[in-house]
Amino acid sequence: MRRDINDTIAAIATAHGQGAIGIVRISGAEALAVLGRVFRPMPAEILSHQMYYGSICKDGEVVDEVMVCVMLSPRSFTREDSVEIYAHGGQFVLGEVLGAVVENGARLAEAGEFTKRAFLNGRINLAQAEAVMDLIGAKSGAARRAALRQLGGGLSQRIETVRDKILQWLAHIELSIDYPEHEEEARNASEILAEGGAVVADLKKLYETATTGRIIREGVRTAIIGRPNVGKSTLLNAILHENRAIVHETAGTTRDVLTEEVRIADIPLVIMDTAGLRETSDPIEKIGIEKTHEAAQDAELILYVADSTDGLTQEDKKIIEGLGQSAKQIILMNKSDLRESDDKSDSIKISAKTGEGLDKLFTKIRELFLAGNIGEGAESDIITRERHKILLEQSANHVTQAMQELQNGIPEDLVSVSLKAAYICLGEILGVEIGDDIVDRIFSEFCVGK
């Protein structure tokens, strides 16, 4: 059910759990009126962006001592009158404060409704709104920098520049159709053909960052693969800096896939410790080996662990060959602390027990997935949403089609159809050309209170 945009909304804006401070957020035309019914003492005059000390009361009883900050329209996140109540951070107390607010004129906010109002009220565009959620969920410095760049309007400015160029083409075409006596407008085709290649190249360069964007946002699916007892679980524990996986000298200890998330060299890894690969008659171990093969098929990165005291055996080579080329692979010669391997393969010598060589592994992972794609600064525009990638690709295709149509002598009024489609696709990224159902779906992914 669609809620009235004119409602005054409220929600707990801090994470669930117990903390020193919790925040209840209110936004809407009646925000100050609602505050006046629950806050004591209510100042006779409210100044924007000032803190006030007092109590939240419900049914004549003090619920909590609080600090209140009022942000008057349009100088607030939503561009509406907004109030933030800083209470003690227990969930029961926060629930009581929110209950008092709701009982006195506000309604509970839906997921992402504060950010949605910021979008609808023109404070941010849709790409910037999505960046808010990316920033909240950032798992690395790279993800944080990409989100901040997008939130600051870097991506939006780049898209607006392309939209302006396409709009200029469309305006010239319309003018030449309406006023054919203007001879200078006959240059439309040559100008579009001359400038269109650069526009398409810029759009392609942008949507090709989607792979990097997905990696820094969601992480690299990583499988630790190898024969039994080569130190796969020890490696997982070393990467996590905790004893998460069972380690034992008995071969075949790992029977299932153990999945953990960790950040390495500014890259989130969704890392899977798997059962060792070997021939076995044990039915339970067979199931674990089947799951290992499934993990390898799903992985984007395979860390193949071999025992440096044995070198890279024929069995290792057979397993590596069977893994295929769908994922990037790094061969790790483990147990280097026990024996200096004379192995000549393209591998990294490590000791999962002592940590030797892990820095080289982390550097290699960064080179494979981020080198040349994102810098340490905030200057890079990175696409982090599949929606953006699809729309950028579609826009580039429409511009390419328009250029082909001009080369084939298609009338300009028909060429303008392709250019308008490109213009609309870019507008959908910013939320200019987009339906309410898509907007609702995007903001439903947000947390309540944001």
Summarize the structure in short.
Helices cover 44% and strands 18% of the residues. It has 15 helices and 13 strands. The protein has helices at 31-38, 91-103, 113-120, 126-136, 141-151, 154-178, 188-207, 210-218, 232-240, 283-298, 314-322, 358-369, 386-407, 412-430, 436-443; strands at 9-12, 19-27, 39-40, 50-58, 61-71, 82-89, 107-108, 220-226, 258-264, 267-273, 301-307, 328-334, 348-349.
Topology:
Elements: E1 9-12, E2 19-27, H1 31-38, E3 39-40, E4 50-58, E5 61-71, E6 82-89, H2 91-103, E7 107-108, H3 113-120, H4 126-136, H5 141-151, H6 154-178, H7 188-207, H8 210-218, E8 220-226, H9 232-240, E9 258-264, E10 267-273, H10 283-298, E11 301-307, H11 314-322, E12 328-334, E13 348-349, H12 358-369, H13 386-407, H14 412-430, H15 436-443
Parallel strand pairs: 1-7, 8-10, 8-11, 11-12, 12-13
Antiparallel strand pairs: 1-2, 2-6, 3-4, 4-5, 5-6, 9-10
Architecture overview:
With 450 residues, the protein is α/β, with parallel strands linked by helices. It folds into 3 domains: 9-124, 2-Layer Sandwich (Gyrase A, domain 2); 151-213 and 383-445, Four Helix Bundle (Hemerythrin (Met), subunit A), CATH 1.20.120.430; 218-375, Rossmann fold (3-Layer(aba) Sandwich), CATH 3.40.50.300. The chain contains 15 helices and 13 strands. The chain has helices at residues 31-38, 91-103, 113-120, 126-136, 141-151, 154-178, 188-207, 210-218, 232-240, 283-298, 314-322, 358-369, 386-407, 412-430, 436-443; strands spanning 9-12, 19-27, 39-40, 50-58, 61-71, 82-89, 107-108, 220-226, 258-264, 267-273, 301-307, 328-334, 348-349. The strands form 2 sheets. A 7-stranded mixed β-sheet has the order 3-4-5-6-2-1-7. The chain has a 6-stranded mixed β-sheet with strand order 9-10-8-11-12-13, with helices on both faces. The protein is flat, with a radius of gyration of 29 Å. The mean pLDDT is 85.
